[in-house]
Amino acid sequence: MTETRGERKEKTRRAILDAALALSSDTTLVALSLRQVAKEVGIVPTAFYRHFASIDDLGLALVEEALDTLRTLLRELRSSAGQDARTIIDGSVTVLVEQVRQHQAQFAFIARERFAGPPAVREAIARGIGLAERELSTDLAYLPGTDKWSDEDRQTLSSLIVGAMVTTVERLLTAAAGSTAEGRVAASTRAQLRMMVIGAKHWRSTP
User: Fold this and answer.
1) Predicted confidence (pLDDT) at residue 27 exceeds the cutoff of 90
2) CA-wise closest residue to 108 among 17, 169, 175, 178
3) Which of 54, 59, 203 minimizes the C-alpha distance to 143?
4) What is the pLDDT of residues 74-119, one digit of tens each?
5) What's the pLDDT band for 1 if we cut at 50, 70, 90?
6) From the CB of residue 196, how many other CB atoms can be counted at a distance below 10 Å?
7) What is the pLDDT, as a whole number, of residue 17?
8) Which superfamily is assigned to 1-52 in CATH?
9) Percent of the chain having pLDDT more than 70?
10) CATH class of the domain at 59-201
């Protein structure tokens, strides 16, 4: 079947995204040039602009893809209400490890560019993580015992949870799949999250 123009355009866009991930794996987006990406894909540099306005724009698309995986995981965690905390935590950490292995290039991109990328990309990553924290904070109000918490306290707990997951991703990237080190990272994260939950059960907001 002959590809439509739209299908060809999407295929090229996907190739550009994949090429940028591969080329930036040993460096950062700042050091990547439009010509390098175009050459890797096999297109002329001017064709790049049919898909992205700049390297920064390309980076923003990569950020959106990578953070979507984290947001999906957090949505699954929030939809697990009714299960006991240990089951939710154990399941969430297991899924997080699986997602990092399945999308390692995207998560590695976020880990690199979070502090070393172009300003627009760093800001987009910070906004994405902040959005995940706010969404989780809103849902924490429906958990038993937190309905009378202050907004600030719910935000603090959500920041701790999301921060632990982001740190876990970065630690998993340095551990080989299926290794003892990977197991230690997962066990440490489960323990951290359980401590947070236990502490939250006994927390009372100051009037």
Assistant:
1) no
2) 169
3) 203
4) 776 666 555 567 777 888 888 889 989 988 988 999 999 999 999 9
5) low
6) 17
7) 93
8) Homeodomain-like (1.10.10.60)
9) 93
10) mainly alpha
Q: Give dist(CA 157, CA 140) in Å, integer.
A: 9
Q: How far apart are CA 60 and CA 20, in angstroms?
A: 12
- For the chain, the domains span 1-52, 59-201
CB 109 within 8 A of CB 66: yes
Q: What's this model's pTM, rounded to 2 decimal places? A: 0.84
CB 153 within 8 A of CB 203: yes
pLDDT surpassing 90 at residue 206: no
pLDDT in tens, 128-154: 999 988 888 887 777 777 778 898 998
**Are the beta carbons of 22 and 40 closer than 8 angstroms?**
yes
Q: Are 61 and 52 in contact (CB under 8 A)?
A: yes
Residue 83 bridge partners (DSSP): 81
C-alpha span between 81 and 78 (Å, rounded):
6
Task: Assess contact for 54 and 119: CB atoms under 8 A.
Answer: no
